[in-house]
Amino acid sequence: MNALMGFLEKYMLPVAEKIQGQKHLQSVRDGIILAMPLIIVGSIFLIIANLPIPGFSHFMAGVFGADWSKKFSYPINATFSIMSIIVCFGIAYRLAERHKVDALSSGAIALSAFILSTPQVLMFTPEGAKKAIEVPGVIPVTLMGSQGLFVAMIIALFSAEVYRKVIQKEFVIKMPQGVPPAVSKSFTALIPAFIVLTIVWIVRLILEATSLQDLHHLINLIITTPLSFLGGSLWGMLIAVLAIQLLWCFGLHGDAIIVDSLMAPIWLALMDQNRQVYMANHHADLPNIITAPFYNIWVTAGGSGLTLGLVLLMMFRARSKQMKQLGKIAAAPSLFNINEPAIFGTPIVMNPIMMIPFILTPLIVVLVTYFSMASGLVAKPNGVLIPWTTPLGISGFLATGKISGGAVQIVNLIISILIYYPFLRLYDKQKYQEEHTPSQTNESFDGSVNV
């Protein structure tokens, strides 16, 4: 164990710290977080529109009319379907902010470049027609949602970097003093905007002249599809969870480094695929098990490492005053999936005994939950994004619309208790002995006391 700790501390910790402080990854994380409130609001309407309550559909039809579900889809589409727009603006804004240049102009330029990179055409098949016709002058909503997420991220990072470099080299139009700041900033952004949009325009023209068609098709070919395959696989989830837990063991926020910065775009896109299928047909077999809710709702129920089970053991099985008191303090936050008190209070950080179950528990839970869903015993996540503070049991039901989603969370909690128990018993025994061993004092010959 000491050799493993030394290896991780020497080789993994420095890399993790660099990733955590990397401006571009931080900006990607912040841009995605900017879209979260809208997606959660859309998810609330999605839950209401699909509540599995007998007679609910008849009641809603009486209140809102026969097409009530269509009316409830309006806010769903208005939130999920603009995910890429919000993320693009947010990433460019936050990156410019970190570079200490005008963030608002950076976000606006990036958003314009993203729209420019998107083909404004839609294929439409009229009713009764055998062949689709091309409808020009429209922006495909699908590319503004999860399907355009990676293009939005790339355009935002590129645009913000070009904007920042042009501004810092002072290759801008400077207005005389006395001109209102808002007007002056708009002229300052003129040349950077022209450069960014010209480059994106040229790239679009080149791609249109080839079989690649446009930037969305290119990114889907070389990035989105391979990453979705890896990130949406069981092995991808296991590797991500292992990395997250190892980072937490060294006091680094593993979720912020791995999930928010690297995996969120993949898992959100897979989640939205499930939502689209679910809205089209509630009884259809959903395409993805691994999604953002899979991690948030089942793998981290009670916090990273499923420490709610550990906290319950502290409250009811610990003998030492330290562990029992910590269990009482950490209980309320853990019920809402906030487990920093448990991680840093136990502590689990840099603690060889407690690190083992902290890493092992979520890996086992990933396997149990995945195969439960793959076998059909448990419903797959239907594309609803539940607030991460929603208590265990409730969140599983809401994320699937089935009781089985909440039931497997209870099973996972029991698994976590069984795994943590022998390790807590050993660690609690040490703490109990420390509390009941009187401090030894030795008097030296000069009269001083050594403790």
Largest β sheet strand count, sense and barrel closure: 2 strands, antiparallel
**Number of H/I helices:** 20
Please report the total strand number as a whole number.
4
Structural class: mainly alpha
Membrane topology: Multi-pass membrane protein
Protein name: Permease IIC component
Subcellular location: Cell membrane
InterPro entries: PTS_EIIC (IPR003352), PTS_EIIC_3 (IPR004501), PTS_IIC_cello (IPR004796), PTS_Sugar-EIIC/EIIB (IPR051088)
Give your account of this protein's structure.
This protein is mostly helical and 451 residues long. The chain folds into 2 domains: 246 residues, no CATH class; 152 residues, no CATH class. 69% of the residues lie in helices and 3% in strands. The protein is built from 20 helices and 4 strands. The strands form 2 sheets. A two-stranded antiparallel sheet has the order 1-2. A two-stranded antiparallel sheet has the order 3-4. A hairpin with a 5-residue loop joins strand 3 and strand 4. Helix 6 packs parallel to helix 10. The longest helix has 33 residues. It starts with a helix and ends with a strand.
Structural topology:
Layout (H helix, E strand, L loop, with lengths): L1 H19 L2 H27 L6 H9 L3 H13 L2 H16 L4 H15 L3 E4 L8 E4 L4 H4 L4 H20 L12 H8 L1 H19 L6 H17 L2 H16 L4 H27 L11 H8 L8 H10 L3 H15 L4 H6 L6 H23 L19 H7 L2 H33 L6 E2 L5 E2 L1
Antiparallel strand pairs: 1-2, 3-4
Helix pairs in contact: 2-4, 2-5, 2-13, 5-6, 5-8, 6-8, 6-10, 8-10, 11-13, 12-13, 12-18, 15-16, 15-20, 18-20, 19-20
